[in-house]
Design a protein that fits this description.
Elements: H1 7-17, E1 22-28, H2 32-43, E2 48-51, H3 58-61, H4 92-105, E3 110-111, E4 116-121, E5 127-131, E6 135-143, E7 150-151, E8 164-165, E9 178-182, H5 186-197, E10 201-205, H6 220-228, E11 233-235, E12 239-243, E13 247-252, E14 255-260, E15 263-266, E16 270-271, H7 274-279, E17 306-308, H8 323-341
Parallel strand pairs: 1-2, 1-6, 2-3, 6-17, 8-15, 9-10, 9-15, 10-11
Antiparallel strand pairs: 4-5, 5-6, 7-16, 12-13, 13-14
Helix pairs in contact: 2-8
């Protein structure tokens, strides 16, 4: 992490900020785990502020409209606030309502639609956090940014056409259209099934030889049967090579084919913003996982007083950590900070 260019500048900035912009903890990310950190801090009587670049639980907001969680509602609970849903597996809309209610009930201190631009250290080892709207200082920093912001790109000609999206929301938009879905995991399967049920002519392009093993167990037979009966066409061991305005080229085991196409939904997965972690001075592993360096007990990184919480802890391995097994990170972090303040 870079220090501020001048001690005088740091002092001037702190005077300008005043106490209202100084916190013991700043939490970057207003998802469920960032909120859990805030609740734990409040219960420990530590002042804090969450900075979230989008809306509350922004990643969940960007999930498909009709998405159903794999986890049961009680596994998504934070702050000991009960999560009551109509079915054992809650929906996106139920989760949005639940976390909004938690934020309101717990009076969480959060600034929404305020993006962190960069972080530096002053001469007292405090963090100076500059955002799209203001500047703040904090003795401790918690990064809980998730991984839903940066899609894996296809890197093929035509990927930047307006017809191509890496985010799927609502099936009605694709009714009676020729839709190509790229991918074989939950998001891709949901997009394929939902758009097909709205009357779309759906083709899937799947890199491997079968539907993904992580697909929800109650959905997997549905997509496999739709493919078997040819209601949804699927090309396995295949990849898209070119996207054009009204057609797409697909490299298959039998050679390249060209199909008519109106829309491409590329559900190729997402990755955490590891470059941001590097700007903070956090060391990453040399392998493909690029796992950040942090203590498994305290979640403090190699940078003093800088902590990681949630799925960001897994680096590129974004399928290891979820809400249900990351909630404890908040307690570990706040316990460590509390012990250091005594």
């Amino acid at each position: 992490m870079n220090r501020s260019p001048s001690g005088n500048i740091c002092v001037d900035l702190q005077k300008k900020l005043g106490s209202k912009n100084q916190y013991s903890i700043i939490i970057i990310g207003g998802g469920p785990i960032g909120m859990a950190c805030a609740i734990a801090a409040k219960e420990a009587n530590i002042d804090y502020l969450i900075l979230e670049k989008g809306c509350l639980v922004n990643s969940i907001y960007n999930y498909p409209v009709n998405m159903t969680f794999f986890s049961t509602s009680e596994r998504l609970e934070i702050g000991e606030v009960p999560f009551v849903s109509n079915n054992p597996k809650p929906t996106r809309s139920e989760a949005l309502e639940y976390y909004r209610r938690v934020a309101d009930t717990k009076k969480i201190n959060i600034n929404l639609f305020e993006e962190v631009k960069h972080v530096t250290l002053d001469e007292h080892e405090n963090f100076i956090v500059s955002t799209s709207k203001s500047n703040y200082t904090a003795g401790h920093l918690i990064v809980a940014t998730g991984f839903y912001d940066i899609p894996y790109l296809l890197k093929v000609p035509g990927e930047t056409l307006p017809k191509v999206t890496h985010y799927y929301k609502d099936p009605h938009f694709y009714a009676f259209q020729k839709v190509l879905v790229i991918g074989a995991n939950n998001s891709a399967v949901d997009a394929a099934l939902e758009t097909w049920r709205k009357g779309a002519d759906v083709t899937m392009v799947i890199r491997d030889s079968q539907i993904g093993s992580r697909v929800k167990y109650w959905v997997k037979p549905d997509i496999e049967n739709r493919i078997k009966e040819n209601s949804i066409k699927a090309w396995f061991n295949s990849s898209v090579t070119v996207i054009r305005e009204d057609e797409v080229d697909i490299l298959t085991p039998d050679g390249t084919i060209t199909i008519a196409n109106d829309w491409v939904i590329a559900m190729t997965g997402y990755q955490p913003n590891l470059e941001f972690l590097k700007t903070l001075g956090i060391e990453l592993s040399e392998d493909d996982i690029k796992k950040p360096t942090y203590s498994e007990d305290s979640h403090e990184t190699n940078v003093k007083n800088l902590y990681l919480a949630g799925v960001i802890c897994g680096g590129m391995n974004t399928h290891r950590l979820f809400i249900e097994n990351s909630r404890e990170h908040a307690l570990q972090i706040i316990k460590n900070i509390s012990n250091g303040r005594r």
